[in-house]
């Protein structure tokens, strides 16, 4: 272990044992988080409106506060963006994470007050490194540079002192000087707004750097790493950066990209998943032999969950606290934070694989699934079935999206999949059949609807040209950062537009 890593381990030597305590003290830890949150909430207009004091317990908290979505909080956030204080947050708030849009607005603005920034986002980053060092005691990651793909700050019309941007840009802007010194590229380049310029200047900087860690969304990281390799004439990232040790990834499921990353990065690189959203840092893959993530319990976040089989946006009354969840059930996650979100539906769905400690996998989005014919197809099913089809057919995927098509005359329908490949299968019909087989094996509801084509016909797979998904993202102003094309949709409008772009239609 190098000197810097040894110093880091010394500074945070107690942290791994504290995290280990999650397994036996989860209820106690979560109760402490709720007390902190209610103390902060009691100082706000939102808290006073709902009769919140700093001494209430969970049952009163859940009784007085409704479960909300972003649209419910938007009027409060708009006032905060204009400069009003103590509306949702109990402390002065000047920074906001700008996230992908809702149905009613182009973007969401999530408050990032100082306590939430340090207790949640920054603590999460420190814990990722602490757990990686614990699992890899001979690591030398702090002796080399790191590259974390970041977005940009926004130039919107906000109140005095108010700033907003992608979460990654907010974090970069608030990093201490010592942390900035370990990063590539410069802050100026990292925060560039125009994607093509950022790609060019970032890849130039990466060619000249000695990189040990990569952090970011798999889809966009792949673009930048490949561009740096192209400029350097390297066959793998490991050839370009011999000291490359690990890729910390999150934002989208990694399974569709895993084989391509192994090919591009080269042998010996480790992978570690994190769950860091605009709303907070929630999970870390603490065990390299287990793909599930540990739910982080002491980040100033209180967790509740709604079983997806009773999830109804018009009647959000079925939330349960963490200690009542069961393994193997899909839940919509509800969070309360020190960042001004209270009983807030983040939009992700999870399934617990363990309850001592609480470990989970992300299964999809509350708004990103297909249930047009009662098949209840989640993103996790799609990722695994596509991975199966790709491996069996010798293909390599780059991007995909799917939506239902209704055949009104027959009273049936099918799923239309649009796929952009790194390497296409020789037989696309066989690929579609393998995808169908994989979905049947993973999802009994899908299998039942496919039985003798009773209500669901075989899937249709359309191959689109390279750059199609990039074109869709550019068209929607979503290049870089944590942006992505929706994997599964409730209709085929995105599918039709992707095909139009592939065919060269404007």
Summarize the topology.
Elements: H1 3-11, H2 15-20, H3 22-41, H4 45-49, H5 58-64, H6 70-81, E1 95-100, E2 107-111, H7 114-135, E3 145-148, E4 163-165, H8 167-174, H9 177-180, H10 187-190, H11 195-207, E5 211-216, H12 218-232, H13 237-240, E6 246-249, H14 258-265, E7 270-277, E8 280-284, E9 293-295, E10 301-307, E11 320-321, E12 330-337, E13 344-355, E14 358-365, H15 379-393, E15 396-407, E16 412-423, H16 428-442, H17 444-450, E17 460-463, H18 468-475, H19 493-502
Parallel strand pairs: 1-4, 3-5, 5-6, 6-7, 16-17
Antiparallel strand pairs: 1-2, 7-8, 8-9, 9-14, 10-11, 10-12, 12-13, 13-14, 15-16
Walk me through this protein's architecture.
- It is a single chain.
- This protein has 506 residues and is of the alpha/beta class.
- The chain folds into 3 domains: 3-72 and 84-90 and 299-365, no CATH class; 117-153 and 167-277, 3-Layer(aba) Sandwich (Rossmann fold); 379-502, GMP Synthetase, Chain A, domain 3, CATH 3.30.300.
- The protein contains 19 helices and 17 strands.
- It has helices spanning 3-11, 15-20, 22-41, 45-49, 58-64, 70-81, 114-135, 167-174, 177-180, 187-190, 195-207, 218-232, 237-240, 258-265, 379-393, 428-442, 444-450, 468-475, 493-502; strands spanning 95-100, 107-111, 145-148, 163-165, 211-216, 246-249, 270-277, 280-284, 293-295, 301-307, 320-321, 330-337, 344-355, 358-365, 396-407, 412-423, 460-463.
- The strands form 3 sheets. An 11-stranded mixed sheet has the order 3-5-6-7-8-9-14-13-12-10-11, with helices on both faces. A 3-stranded mixed sheet has the order 2-1-4. Strands 15-16-17 form a 3-stranded mixed sheet, sandwiched between helices.
């Amino acid at each position: 272990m190098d000197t810097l890593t040894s110093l880091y381990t010394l500074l945070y030597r107690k942290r791994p044992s504290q995290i280990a305590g999650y397994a036996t003290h989860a209820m106690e830890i979560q109760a402490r988080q709720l007390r902190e949150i209610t103390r902060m909430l009691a100082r706000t207009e939102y808290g006073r409106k709902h009769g919140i004091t700093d001494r209430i317990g969970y049952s009163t908290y859940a009784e007085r506060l409704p479960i909300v979505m972003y649209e419910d909080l938007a009027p409060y956030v708009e006032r905060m963006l204009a400069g009003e204080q103590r509306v949702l947050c109990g402390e002065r708030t000047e920074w906001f994470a700008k996230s992908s849009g809702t149905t009613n607005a182009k973007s969401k603005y999530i408050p990032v007050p100082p306590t939430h920034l340090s207790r949640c986002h920054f603590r999460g980053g420190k814990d990722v490194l602490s757990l990686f060092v614990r699992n890899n005691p001979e690591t030398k990651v702090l002796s080399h540079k790191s590259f974390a793909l970041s977005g940009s700050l926004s130039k919107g019309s906000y109140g005095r002192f108010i700033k907003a941007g992608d979460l990654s840009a907010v974090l970069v802007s608030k990093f201490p000087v010592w942390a900035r010194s370990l990063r590539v590229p410069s802050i100026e380049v990292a925060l560039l707004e125009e994607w093509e310029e950022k790609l060019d200047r970032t890849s130039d900087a990466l060619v000249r750097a000695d990189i040990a860690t990569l952090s970011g969304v798999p889809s966009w990281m792949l673009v930048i790493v490949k561009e740096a390799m192209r400029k350097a004439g390297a066959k793998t990232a490991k050839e370009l950066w011999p000291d490359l040790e690990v890729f910390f990834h999150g934002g989208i499921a990694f399974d569709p990209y895993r084989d391509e990353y192994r090919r591009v990065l080269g042998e010996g690189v480790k992978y570690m998943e994190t769950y860091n959203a605009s709303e907070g840092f929630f999970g870390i893959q603490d065990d390299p032999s287990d793909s599930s993530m540990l739910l982080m319990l002491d980040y100033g976040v209180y967790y509740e969950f709604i079983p997806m089989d009773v999830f109804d946006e018009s009647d959000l009354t079925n939330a349960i606290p963490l200690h009542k969840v069961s393994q193997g059930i899909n839940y919509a996650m509800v969070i309360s934070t020190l960042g001004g979100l209270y009983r807030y539906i983040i939009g992700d769905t999870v399934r617990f694989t363990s309850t001592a400690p609480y470990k989970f996998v992300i299964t999809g989005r509350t708004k990103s699934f297909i249930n047009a014919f009662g098949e209840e197809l989640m993103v996790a099913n799609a990722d695994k079935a596509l991975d199966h089809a790709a491996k069996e057919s010798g293909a390599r995927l780059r991007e995909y999206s799917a939506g239902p098509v209704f055949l009104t005359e027959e009273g049936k329908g099918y799923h239309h999949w649009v796929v952009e490949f790194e390497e296409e299968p020789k037989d696309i019909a066989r690929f579609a059949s393998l995808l169908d087989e994989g979905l049947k094996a993973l999802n009994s509801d899908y299998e039942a609807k496919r039985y003798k084509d009773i209500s669901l016909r075989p899937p249709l797979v359309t191959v689109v040209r390279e750059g199609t998904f990039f074109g869709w993202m550019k068209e929607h102003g979503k290049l870089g950062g944590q942006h992505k094309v929706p994997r599964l949709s409730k209709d085929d409008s995105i599918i039709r537009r992707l095909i139009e772009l592939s065919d060269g239609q404007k």
